[in-house]
Amino acid sequence: MPKMKTHRGAAKRFRKTGTGKIKVFRAFHSHLLEHKTAKRKRRLRKGRILSPADTARVRRLLPY
Asked: Lower CB density within 10 Å: C or N end of the chain?
């Protein structure tokens, strides 16, 4: 059986934490930032933990 390949698009968007959860960076923080409030931009800087419903799908894309 051949080795499983990591989905490269997913590898650039998701990271596994030490406990095995999936960390995601938030969208809407790359451009068109002048009309967004400072509070909103500050919150977008931080990542979040992926919901359990989506975690199963992402785990399949990141086997290692």
From this structure: N
User: pLDDT by residue for the chain (64 residues), tens digit each?
Assistant: 899 999 999 999 999 999 999 999 999 999 999 999 999 999 999 999 999 999 999 999 999 8
- CA torsion through residues 35, 40, 45, 49, sign: negative
Say how far residue 17 (Cα) sits from the centre of its chain. 11
Residue 41: partners with Cβ closer than 8 Å, 6 or more residues away: 29, 33
The amino acid at residue 59 is R
23 Cα distance to chain centroid: 5
CATH of domain 8-61: 4.10.410.60
Kindly state the DSSP code that residue 13 receives in the 8-state scheme.
Answer: T
